[in-house]
Write a structure and sequence with these properties.
87 residues, mainly alpha, 0% strand
Length: 87
């Protein structure tokens, strides 16, 4: 297995199909909504929460990973075809 195939296989093991459920809470948007509401009411926004001791894993939605892999494959195919046709 080549380096590229190994990287793609690793990405497959780390990708998820849907970012839903209790483990996937958008804290940034929630905090931003609180800041906007505070500004609307002309009051100070609450202090930023302390970061977690250990950050969570970054999970990629499946669709963008698949599209990226297809683009990479298409680019390689064009490069190989172009190289072979110029020989």
């Amino acid at each position: 297995m080549g380096e590229d195939e190994g990287a793609l296989a690793l990405m497959d093991t780390m990708a998820v199909d849907a970012l839903e459920g209790a483990d996937f809470v958008d804290h940034y948007t929630e905090a931003l909504e609180q800041v906007i509401e505070a500004k609307r009411e002309h009051r100070e926004s609450s202090a930023a929460p302390e970061p977690e001791a250990e950050p969570g894993r970054v999970l990629l939605p499946r669709g963008p990973v698949d599209r990226s892999q297809r683009r990479l494959s298409d680019s390689r195919r064009r490069l190989v075809t172009s190289t072979l046709s110029h020989r």
